[in-house]
Write a structure and sequence with these properties.
Oligomer: heterodimer
Structural class of chain A: alpha+beta
CATH architecture of the largest domain in chain A: Up-down Bundle
Structural class of chain B: alpha+beta
Strand order of the largest sheet of chain A: 1-4-5-8
Number of helices of chain B: 11
Number of strands of chain B: 10
Largest interface: A-B, 53 and 45 residues
Radius of gyration of chain B: 21 Å
Strand order of the largest sheet of chain B: 1-4-5-8
Number of strands of chain A: 8
Distance between the termini of chain A: 43 Å
Largest sheet of chain B: 4 strands, mixed
Helix content of chain A: 40-55%
Shape of chain B: globular
CATH topology of the largest domain in chain A: Butyryl-CoA Dehydrogenase, subunit A, domain 3
Order of helices and strands of chain A: HHHHHHEEEEEEEEHHHHHH
Order of helices and strands of chain B: HHHHHHEEEEEEEEHEEHHHH
CATH class of the largest domain in chain A: Mainly Alpha
Radius of gyration of chain A: 22 Å
Shape of chain A: globular
Largest sheet of chain A: 4 strands, mixed
CATH class of the largest domain in chain B: Mainly Alpha
Distance between the termini of chain B: 30 Å
CATH superfamily of the largest domain in chain B: Butyryl-CoA Dehydrogenase, subunit A, domain 3
Strand content of chain B: 15-25%
Strand content of chain A: 5-15%
CATH architecture of the largest domain in chain B: Up-down Bundle
């Protein structure tokens, strides 16, 4: 048991902290509406480029692709410090966390050479084309067709809940390339240029009022065959490399700690923290936050020791998203009638953070594998219970 | 950074699990639970020979000289088999109190014997049903008299008080100060056979963990019986340290119990069939089990942290101990009842082992401060 950073890690941390202190742009806390379209995209790209120029984007990537081959520990430090500094998220996250590592593992030399260098500097923004109206939790039943005609796949069908499709240059997409194969087998992983003729993007407004995700329609879209990643029909396997990444992305405990700090400050400001019942609830939340924090260190140590991953990601995803929602719900209850006040209202507390978080965190409980799917995984892969019929 | 058990700690865990599977199977637990004393001297000797009883005793005094994290590893295994016996009272509570508050003579007299299993010690604290573990609840006084003290009062819920060769009894020697924790409370080393000490067993649902009511009637003690504490003024701090160690110990034990109860229930639902298939293939059952597993794992990290902090970061230890105690005892109750439900009707029978886990979870939740009290302490120590 040793909780100290090595001198190198400590140096990296202090260097990073110093940089973030002077460079993180001011922004709302999630309660104010984000500026729309072009202006938002410009700002987000500028932030990622600034961070990249300082050497803090995709640090886990190998140097040959523009990263610094940073250790898992350094990547963790980066994540924690970015969250602590309340830095904006990166517009290129899907590229950095999902498609980049997938291409490194499965991509052709041409794909790697042309696409990887454009990810870290936000020259290309990526979106993920997985879910469909009929394929949510049961992702493998997806129906978007890709028919091979000569040197191209012709894609038709529909994707949904596609974050950032309205601004993306590229989509990594799961398509059914062989309708006769068993459902996990007939799937291929395609890279689709979002400017291709036949693509229509229709924004969906979320319950928060933001237009974050979209429906994407494909009407005989021609995708060059060299945009296939991995072997045809092996897309499910290719995608699974990145699904594990997604679960980690959703499980940051620093965000949860900050959220808890927020509800605590709210309780103290309103003097509700003097009430025994409120103290019980706050302490209960704090205990859960701390348990997840130490559990994250435990999982990290296990990974650093090279032990194979089990169901930790599912437990973390389940517990963290549920706890975030509970924290927001507690804050709303502390606010009483002020709780539901939203954007633009007078008397708004914390810039409208809490009703926003209450809604947003519910989205996180559903996205990336619902809580119920995580429980299936824990029961079947973790505890060895038989597949439900 | 390395937040994981050391190789030695993993070995300790594995060898303890092996030894307990051999020496403390459920048939033996049932037999001990059915006996009047609820204690098996043979099993206790086995624990002593394995070096467990002195795990927290300094090497110079015949112990292993290890830390609370090592003890927590052991308690986790003891919890898995609902092991009966005064391990927590004697090898954790009393050893820590003596280590931190005892005079050299007291340590030399008692610690080697406790480590060897030749003597059993316990802590006498409670005067009422207090779920709050605070000095303000303690009123029984030790009166000073020439050359020593006179103890009068009654102490409840003294773990294995009937058997104890040494009772570390908390009596008030000065008025309580506002917010002064156990200030004004002193610990006294009372021989189990002292004149003026009467013991009466208490009957609880958990027959694997016994306790007694101890009555002190004009019990005379020499001045040397007082535990002076690290600061030499009183033993309040030693008492608090012992109670924090117990909180962590109970947390570890609860987690072990929860883990094992879930394992056994999962094994059962894999083979129990209804509607033509294993009930473990139903999502309602799977989600109950998954929820239990998802609550156990983060709680485990808290126990490690709290046990480690007890030795390595004493300033963080009280907060960490309270977090671990509340979290693990709540998890244990939740998991134990889920496990009973997973067994269905069979789980409600005496023949089935689940009731041992359920009952222990109940006792652990109440002992050494309940979850509400520990949460309030978390709030206070975090300056909410």
């Amino acid at each position: 048991m040793d909780l100290d950073l090595t001198p190198e890690e400590a140096h990296f941390q202090s260097e990073l902290r110093a940089w973030l202190k002077t460079n993180v742009p001011a922004r709302g806390r999630g309660g104010t509406r984000e500026p729309a379209g072009g202006e938002r995209l410009r700002r987000m790209k500028a932030w990622q480029r600034k961070l990249h120029a300082a050497g803090f984007v995709g640090i886990g990537w190998p140097p040959e692709y523009g990263g610094r081959g940073a250790s898992l520990m350094e990547q963790t430090i980066l994540g924690e410090e970015l969250a602590r500094a309340r830095a904006p998220g990166l517009v290129g996250t899907m590229g950095i966390q999902m498609v980049g590592p997938t291409l490194m593992r499965w991509g052709s030399e041409v794909q790697k050479r042309l696409l990887l260098p454009r990810i870290l500097n936000a020259d290309d923004v990526w979106c993920q084309g997985y879910s469909e109206p009929g394929a949510g939790s049961d992702l493998a039943s997806l129906q978007t067709r890709a028919v091979r005609i000569d040197d191209a796949y012709v894609v038709s069908g529909q994707k949904i809940w596609t974050s950032n499709a309205q601004i993306a240059d590229w989509m990594f997409c799961l398509v059914r390339s062989d309708p006769d194969a068993p459902k996990h087998r007939g799937i291929s992983y395609l890279l689709i240029d979002m400017k291709s003729p036949g693509i229509t993007v229709r924004p969906l407004v979320q319950m928060t009022g933001d237009a974050g995700f979209n429906e994407v329609f494909f009407d005989d879209v021609r995708v060059p065959a060299e945009n296939l990643v991995g072997p045809a029909g092996e897309g499910w396997k290719v995608a699974n490399t990145t699904l594990a990444h997604e679960r980690n992305m959703l499980g940051s405990t620093t965000q949860t700690q900050l959220l808890f700090d927020g509800v605590l400050r709210l309780a103290q400001r309103t003097r509700r923290s003097e009430q025994p019942l409120v103290r019980q609830r706050l302490a209960g939340l704090k205990i859960q936050v701390e348990a997840l924090r130490w559990n994250a260190y435990r999982n990290l140590s296990s990974a650093l020791r090279g032990r194979p991953a089990g169901i930790e990601a599912s437990i973390t995803k389940l517990a963290t998203t549920e706890l975030n929602h509970e924290i927001a719900r507690t804050a709303l209850e502390l606010l009483g009638m002020l709780g539901p006040l939203y954007r633009g209202s007078r008397h708004l507390e914390d810039d409208g953070l809490w009703p926003y978080q209450f809604m947003f965190s519910l989205g996180m409980i559903i996205g990336g594998g619902t809580s119920q799917i995580q429980k299936n995984i824990i029961a079947q892969r973790g505890l060895g219970l038989p597949r439900a019929v | 950074m390395d937040f994981s058990l050391s190789e030695e700690q993993e070995q300790l865990r594995d060898s303890a699990r092996e030894l307990l599977a051999r020496e403390c199977p459920m048939e033996r637990v049932r037999k001990i639970a059915a006996e009047a004393a609820g204690h098996d001297a043979g099993l206790w000797r086995t624990f002593g020979e394995a070096g467990w009883l002195g795990i927290l005793v300094p090497e110079a005094l015949g112990g292993a000289g290890l830390g609370l994290l090592d003890a927590a590893v052991l308690l986790h295994e003891l919890g898995r088999v609902v092991a009966p016996g005064p391990f927590l009272a004697s090898s954790v509570a009393a050893v820590v109190a003596l280590r931190e508050g005892g005079s050299r003579a007291q340590q030399e007299e008692w610690l080697p014997r406790l480590a060897a299993g030749d003597a059993i010690a316990t802590l006498a604290l409670y005067e009422g049903a207090e779920a709050r573990l605070e000095g303000a609840a303690l009123r029984d006084r030790a009166a000073r008299r020439a050359g020593g003290f006179l103890l009068d009062g009654a102490k409840l819920f003294v773990e294995y008080g009937q058997l104890a060769d040494l009772v570390l009894a908390a009596f008030r020697t000065a008025r309580p100060k506002a917010g002064g924790d156990f200030d004004g409370v002193s610990l006294f080393a009372v021989p189990g056979g002292a004149r003026g000490l009467k013991k009466e067993p208490l009957v609880s649902v958990d027959e694997t963990r016994r306790s007694a009511e101890l009555r002190f009637r004009g019990l005379a003690l020499p001045r040397e019986a007082l535990l002076l504490g690290a600061r030499g003024s009183d033993s309040a701090r030693a008492l608090r340290r012992a109670l924090d160690a117990c909180a962590v110990g109970i947390a570890a034990e609860s987690l072990g119990g929860a883990e094992r109860a879930l394992e056994r229930a999962v094994e059962y639902v894999k083979v129990r069939e209804q509607f033509g298939r294993p009930v473990g293939s139903f999502q309602a059952v799977q989600h109950m089990a998954a929820e239990a597993a998802a609550r156990i794992e983060p709680a485990r990290a808290l126990v490690w942290y709290a046990a480690w902090a007890f030795d390595a970061r004493p300033k963080e230890a009280p907060l960490a101990a309270s977090m671990a105690k509340a979290a693990c005892c709540d998890v244990y109750r939740f998991v134990a009842r889920s496990a009973v439900e997973m067994y269905g009707g069979v789980g409600f029978t005496w023949e089935n082992d689940m009731h041992f886990y359920l009952k222990r979870s109940l006792v652990n939740a109440a002992a050494f401060g309940d979850s509400d009290w520990h949460r309030e302490r978390v709030a206070e120590l975090s300056r909410f």
